[in-house]
Amino acid sequence: MSKHPVNLAVRFMLEVLGLSTFGVWGYQQSDIWTRILLAIILPLGYAVLWGVFAVKDDPSRSGKTVVQTPGTIRLILELLLFGAATWMLHSLGYSTLGFIFGGVVILHYILSYDRIAWLLKQK
């Protein structure tokens, strides 16, 4: 199921929304010039973590990786980033959107049970 085009599209949308949330949240943390800096650095950090630390031959990605990461660590990283984005949405006052985002993340991982099982086997 994790290779299904609809599930991959949902995963991509979650990644983009998570990335965007990090930027908006960073921008809202200050009223001075640092808001621009945070709006750039936080999503950049998200993108680096997401793109660099991957499991070799991950069926939901290109299979390539910069830093080969154990599957358990990758799964924890994904859950931490999506969890942080969910919390940020609540923090920004978008509680309903936060619940929807978090719910879709949970549904995505339920439907990706085969990928989760695969990740947990990767050392």
Could you explain the architecture of this structure?
By secondary structure, the protein is mainly alpha-helical. It is built from 5 helices and 2 strands; from the N terminus they run ααββααα. The chain has one domain. The chain has helices at residues 5-27, 34-52, 71-91, 95-111, 113-121; strands spanning 53-54, 67-68. It has a two-stranded parallel ribbon. Helix 1 (5-27) runs antiparallel to helix 2 (34-52) and helix 3 (71-91) packs across helix 5 (113-121). The mean pLDDT is 92.
Describe the secondary structure blueprint for this structure.
Elements: H1 5-27, H2 34-52, E1 53-54, E2 67-68, H3 71-91, H4 95-111, H5 113-121
Parallel strand pairs: 1-2
Helix pairs in contact: 1-2, 1-3, 1-4, 3-4, 3-5
Keywords:
123 residues, mainly alpha, two-stranded parallel sheet, 5 helices, 72% helix, 3% strand
Kindly state the number of beta strands. 2
Question: Any low-confidence stretches, pLDDT <50, length ≥5?
Answer: none
User: How are the strands ordered across the major sheet?
Assistant: 1-2
Order of helices and strands: HHEEHHH
Number of domains: 1
Shape: globular
Helix fraction bin = over 70%
The DSSP helix count reads: 5
> Largest sheet, described in full?
2 strands, parallel
Secondary-structure-based class equals mainly alpha
Gap from first CA to last CA: 22 Å
Mean residue pLDDT: 92
Strand content: under 5%
What is the radius of gyration? Answer: 15 Å
